[in-house]
Description:
By secondary structure, the protein is an all-alpha fold. It has one domain (3-93). It is built from six helices and no strands. Helix 1 (3-27) packs across helix 6. The longest helix has 25 residues, at 3-27.
Amino acid sequence: MQETSKSTHRNREFAESIAISALGFLATDSEHLEQFLSLSGLTPDGIREAATDPGFLLGVLQHVLSDEKLASGFALQEGLSPETLAKAVHVLEHA
């Protein structure tokens, strides 16, 4: 694997791990989770299946970033900067 390819793979894995953490963050608050489910059209049972779709993880991050208070709370909990969240979205958009 070439160095650029390895770097791209690591960036994607890091972005996906942030998105998975974001989903966990949403799941800790029933109001936020219900809002996400409502907007995405998913059911609680459908999350597991949807999580295998790379677009789903992008949607999770986009949802979190669409609400400044939610994004700030998530970034603070995870020790991430807003720029890191934006970069993760960018990586997943181009994965």
